[in-house]
């Protein structure tokens, strides 16, 4: 019997290579009951390989996989996927075409006929497909098929559910609804879920923890709020939204920029740094405001920008600027409709607590 705080799934220093370089590089991860962790990262960073190793479809070159504290794969043993008590839901969530919905969901179930019927009935209700039990996959829409696949994956109450881009086949309109329904079901079932996605918004929406991957490694792991608001470097910041970059050089633990001074503790004099700010965190004013360069104030000095283009994007407006100080381009978003004409002068300022300062690499 596993101790109360034993992870449902644990990856210990997993490494794997397909020949050239490491697809997964000494990766460790713990996933607990009721938790959803998203592996997020650019194409080719090793997300799917990690998931496949956890599932047992791929055998790692080094490291160990544990389910409920028991080693299921290491250098000396390798338990096949079907014996790991792990549910899988991959991109091509193919349902069995010759089985109706009820039999698809019941496929991995054990127990009496009555027990199976009860579980299938409860899950059909849960994914809002009551009355669909006798339909065949080809009679269902993409979203409906997806919900059947989800019900099938969770039906046997797997210890861990592994999902690889499970919503990528759905159009935008369906996706949010199916994602939310999925999350609700997974939480109700207390499932431990490892989900692979390359979409930051999906990870933000689904995850308790985001594990940001790059080059086969987890570079940063934390709650979505923390990852978004305290990224470890420029690439991590830029993975979640467009970013604006202002360059500076360090002098006496400060850097002087057209937006005022910024504290850069620990950086040597002469070092180049980058100040990163997301478009929604730049402020636009019609007039220059009288704020002096004071590194402790929240907002620095306003800098003059000339509107090059403004576009309305539905729920917000995007205004692009050419900056007066060096011709560089910055972009700002604001909720609602704000469409200043090209050539208009506006003053931009940065809230220091919304900026990230990183050494230039
Ligand atoms: P994507 O988001 O595009 O699916 P990913 O982050 O899931 O990417 P992986 O599929 O894990 O990345 O691939 C990691 C690396 O391993 C890539 O360089 C890929 O080309 C390589 N790779 C993956 N599977 C194989 C394979 N079967 N044979 C050879 N190389 C592979």
Low-confidence sequence ranges: 290-296
Broad CATH class of the largest domain: Alpha Beta
Q: What letter string, H or E per element, gives the SSE order? A: EEEHEEEHHHEHEHEEHHEEEEEEEEEE
**Strand arrangement, major sheet:** 6-7-8-3-9-10
Helix content class: 10-25%
C-alpha Rg, in Å?
25 Å
Beta fraction: 25-35%
Ligand species = adenosine-5'-triphosphate
- Taken together, the total number of domains comes to 2
Q: How would you describe this protein?
A:
It contains 8 helices and 20 strands. It has about 350 residues and is of the alpha+beta class. β1 and β2 form a beta hairpin. α4 runs parallel beside α5. The two termini are about 50 Å apart. The site of adenosine-5'-triphosphate has 11 residues, from α1.
Task: Give a brief outline of the structure.
22% of the residues lie in helices and 33% in strands.
């Amino acid at each position: 019997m596993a101790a109360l705080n034993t992870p449902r799934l644990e990856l210990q220093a997993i490494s794997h290579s397909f020949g050239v370089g490491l697809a997964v590089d000494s990766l460790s991860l713990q996933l607990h009951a009721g938790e959803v962790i998203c592996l997020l990262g650019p194409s080719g960073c090793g997300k799917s390989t990690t998931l496949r190793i956890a599932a047992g479809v791929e055998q790692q070159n080094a490291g160990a996989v544990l389910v409920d504290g028991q080693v299921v794969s290491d250098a000396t043993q390798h338990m096949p996927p079907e014996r790991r008590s792990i549910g899988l839901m991959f991109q091509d969530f193919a349902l069995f075409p010759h089985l109706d919905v009820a039999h698809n969901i019941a496929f991995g179930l054990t127990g009496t006929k009555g027990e199976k019927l009860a579980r299938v009935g409860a899950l059909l209700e849960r994914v809002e497909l009551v009355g669909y039990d006798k339909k065949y996959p080809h009679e269902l829409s993409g979203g409906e098929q997806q919900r059947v696949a989800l019900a099938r994956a969770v039906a046997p109450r797997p210890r861990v559910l592994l999902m690889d881009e499970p919503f990528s086949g759905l159009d935008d309109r369906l996706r949010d609804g199916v994602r939310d329904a999925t999350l609700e079901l997974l939480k109700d079932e207390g499932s431990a879920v490892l989900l692979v996605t390359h979409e930051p918004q999906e990870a933000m929406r689904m995850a308790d923890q985001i594990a940001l991957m790059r080059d086969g490694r987890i570079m940063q792991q934390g709650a979505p709020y923390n990852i978004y608001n305290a990224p470890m470097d420029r690439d991590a910041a830029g993975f979640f939204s467009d970013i604006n970059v202002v360059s500076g050089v360090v002098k006496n633990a400060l850097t002087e920029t057209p937006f005022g001074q910024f504290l850069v503790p620990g950086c040597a004099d002469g070092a180049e740094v980058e100040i990163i700010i997301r478009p929604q965190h730049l402020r636009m004013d019609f007039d220059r405001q009288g704020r002096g360069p004071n590194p402790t104030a929240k907002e620095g000095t306003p800098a003059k920008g000339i509107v090059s283009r403004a576009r309305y994007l539905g729920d917000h407006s995007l205004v692009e600027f050419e900056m007066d100080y060096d011709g560089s381009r910055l972009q700002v978003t604001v909720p609602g409709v704000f469409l200043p004409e090209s050539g208009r002068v506006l003053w931009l300022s940065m809230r220091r607590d919304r900026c990230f300062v990183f050494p230039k690499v």
